[in-house]
Amino acid sequence: MAEPSQRSQHSLTTADAEPDERAVEAALRPRSLDEVVGQQRVREQLALVLDAARLRERAPDHVLLSGPPGLGKTTLAMIIASELGSPLRLTSGPALTHAGDLAAILSGLNEGDVLFIDEIHRMSRAAEEMLYLAMEDFRVDVVIGKGPGATAIPLEIPPFTMVGATTRAGLLPGPLRDRFGFTGHLEFYEPHELDRIVHRSAGLLGVPVSGDGAAEIASRSRGTPRIANRLLRRVRDFAQVRADGVVSLEVAQAALELYEVDEIGLDRLDRGVLDVLCRRFGGGPVGLSTLAVAVGEERETVEEVAEPFLVRQGFLARTPRGRIATPAAWAHLGLRVPQGAPVAEVPLFEE
Ligand SMILES: Nc1ncnc2c1ncn2[C@@H]1O[C@H](COP(=O)(O)OP(=O)(O)OP(=O)(O)O)[C@@H](O)[C@H]1O
Ligand SMILES: [Mg+2]
User: Fold this and answer.
1) Is 146 a catalytic residue?
2) pLDDT score of 137 more than 90
3) Residue partners of 9: CB distance under 8 A and separation at least 6
4) Is 167 noted as a catalytic residue in this protein?
5) Residue owning the nearest CA to atom 13 of ligand 1
6) Which of 5, 8, 61, 260 has the most CB atoms lying inside 10 A of its own CB?
7) pLDDT tier at 345 (50, 70, 90 boundaries)?
């Protein structure tokens, strides 16, 4: 269990997976497109890409999946391979520091394999250039020797399908982005979709859950299946230890209050930031560093962990003069907007 002092890194509501969470997640992953909840558009688009490839008896176009953490990119990559009945070869951008790392993987591919590169925006330049050629011409140039005497030996690779996943599509160089025949953008989930995910996961975990208990967990999950599944597991603990094992509304509320996740999914740090911003600084504008010191956190933690969701919820605006609380933030804290509180210009723009 997380120490209180580690809470800011491993809060219950971060969208990134915790180190020991991968195995649990594997058990809850949908295995086919039909099992995937939500993401209607991407699901339909992908189904079409896969069906068309099956009709033509060819490997489908390369697929790029982009979107925030925990929304189902890895899940969809695995489903693409299983729908095609092909093996999935898995690697990640940070693992491909040298072109040789990628060459070794590419030259081991068989026809129709699906190559999944996670965090593709973190690949080295050299690997990236090799990938361009591989994706377009199914060829790699293996360089033998160094300096002026070096020679490039072209090596054919069998047609494969590349699936890339990224949380930062904007960081992908244009030429790489252009080599994907299809890009699926994953969106945050609606509460009713998360509700279905909670029911599904509860079923798989063998946890009895009531309708309003599931809805309560869904509404605190920040639009993110990973968080929904994580909250469900914590509420299950509470249900088993302190109640009769059933995840009811009362149990969900009591458990999530204990874990300091509020009705809309804000955690202690998120609320701390809003609280300091409104109560101590009159709603801002206040600089990031000052805000960080006031909540006793690192600048980066406030900026990267707390702020994105606060901005998404329309509670906080980042302006050139500093952070500003919106009327919704005051309302969430149960406070009246004071006279003279700063007003965020619309549209809100990022620094
Ligand atoms: N559409 C969905 N329906 C049901 N469960 C889902 C869905 N999408 C994601 N999940 C669940 O959420 C968890 C996280 O999903 P996944 O690992 O695919 O996210 P990701 O987008 O790859 O995240 P990251 O950016 O951190 O790699 C999985 O365990 C899966 O069970
Ligand atoms: Mg992933």
Assistant:
1) no
2) yes
3) 301
4) yes
5) 226
6) 8
7) low
